UniProtKB/TrEMBL annotation:
<protein>
    <recommendedName>
        <fullName>SCAN box domain-containing protein</fullName>
    </recommendedName>
</protein>
<dbReference type="Pfam" id="PF02023">
    <property type="entry name" value="SCAN"/>
</dbReference>
<dbReference type="InterPro" id="IPR003309">
    <property type="entry name" value="SCAN_dom"/>
</dbReference>
<feature type="domain" description="SCAN box">
    <location>
        <begin position="235"/>
        <end position="313"/>
    </location>
</feature>
<feature type="region of interest" description="Disordered">
    <location>
        <begin position="95"/>
        <end position="126"/>
    </location>
</feature>
<dbReference type="InterPro" id="IPR038269">
    <property type="entry name" value="SCAN_sf"/>
</dbReference>
Length: 353
């Protein structure tokens, strides 16, 4: 006998509801405006219907005591599958964690190996250089020019090494200035300066000094020149150093003015400024860059133009090229849109019979 919704609504009962199929119970729930999820089980939807009928005083509350929803075999099976899936996911996550930790350990070991090898290479170079200097001091280098042999002339280098200032990689010129002042004040023989100063070299300076020939390593001026070249900064860094340099509390105004002037001279030297016109162009180009946006400024820094007119023409040409390219891209996009629209319209035209 087919289900009659009107008949059930006119006289609802638990017995009638128990005999209904899920699709029929769904109709009842929709009739009463009961909210439920389509994927819910039949017993769950029936429970919602009973609760509604009790709330509306259509059925007595005792019907809820007997309407106990018992999980079906499918429910237990789904729960088991869900647990197995979660277990598999956890196992995969643990495996990924182990692989990640393994990779990190291997990378750490590789880094430590590279650092150890680099440290050993530096130490080996330092030992070789120290041995070479000892040979020079003792005058036992076979086949070398006797003039190169170190004649101490009663000057004990070992007693004066402790006065050599600490080498500063971030301010190499200051280190050399300090050393030269001490050399003059303590009356160190100038031909011993290279032996004294090398004792405190570190990092790049030590590598540069080790690469010098024996003759050049004994010449202080050549040592100083080679190391200053190794630490030479780009013009932009010199410019920023000049612009940002401020007076320290411990400086006198004379000392501050002297250092400010030195920063300016280094900037000019790095840009090869030697005439009034080149100085004028340096100032004009800097001011031009200060007045434009950062993208254009970065572009100009990469091209390294030093003439104001050239800089302005270069920016104009480059911006024109960018604008032309944008117009071409817009035009191409418009053409593509027209083509797609045409094809779409063609596909919608009725076929001729």
């Amino acid at each position: 006998m087919p289900f009659n919704l009107d008949k059930f609504v006119a006289s609802p009962s638990v017995e009638e509801l128990d005999s209904l199929k899920k699709s029929e119970i769904v109709k009842v729930a929709k009739h009463y405006g009961i909210e439920f999820q389509p994927l819910m089980r039949k017993d769950e939807i029936k429970r919602y219907v009973l609760e509604y009928l009790v709330d509306e005083s259509i059925l007595p509350s005792t019907v809820l005591e007997t309407a106990i929803t018992v999980p079906t075999d499918n429910t237990f099976e789904l729960k088991r599958l869900e647990m197995e899936m979660n277990k598999e996911i956890r196992l995969k996550e643990m495996e990924r964690e182990r692989e990640k930790e393994k990779e990190e350990r291997e990378m750490q070991m590789q880094r430590e190996k590279e650092e150890r090898e680099e440290r050993e290479r530096r130490e080996e170079k330092a030992r070789e250089h120290e041995f070479r200097l000892k040979q020079l001091e003792l005058g036992v280098i076979k086949g070398s020019d006797p003039k190169i042999g170190l004649d101490t002339g009663g000057f004990d280098v070992s007693k004066h090494v402790k006065f050599v200032p600490k080498f500063q990689e971030d301010n190499v010129e200051k280190f050399f200035n300090h050393f030269e002042k001490l050399g003059e004040q303590l009356k160190w023989p100038r031909d011993k300066w290279s032996i004294l100063i090398q004792s405190n070299f570190t990092g790049k300076a030590q590598e540069v000094y080790s690469a010098l020939s024996i003759e050049d390593s004994m010449d202080y001026d050549k040592v100083k020149k080679a190391i200053l070249q190794a630490y030479e900064l780009v013009p932009e860094a010199y410019r920023q150093k000049f612009r940002k340099y401020r007076k320290a509390d411990t400086q006198t105004y004379v000392e501050f003015a002297y250092q400010k002037e030195r920063h300016f001279d280094r900037w000019c030297a790095s840009k090869k400024v030697s005439t009034f016109d080149t100085l004028r162009q340096l100032m004009l180009v800097e001011e031009f860059k200060r007045c434009v946006n950062d993208d254009i400024k970065t572009h100009l820094e990469e091209n390294k133009a030093d003439n104001l007119k050239v800089v302005a023409q270069q920016v104009t040409v480059d911006l024109s090229l960018v604008l032309s390219l944008q117009q071409i891209l817009v035009k191409n996009n418009q053409i593509q849109v027209v083509k797609r629209t045409t094809r779409s319209a063609q596909t919608k035209l009725p076929l001729k019979t």
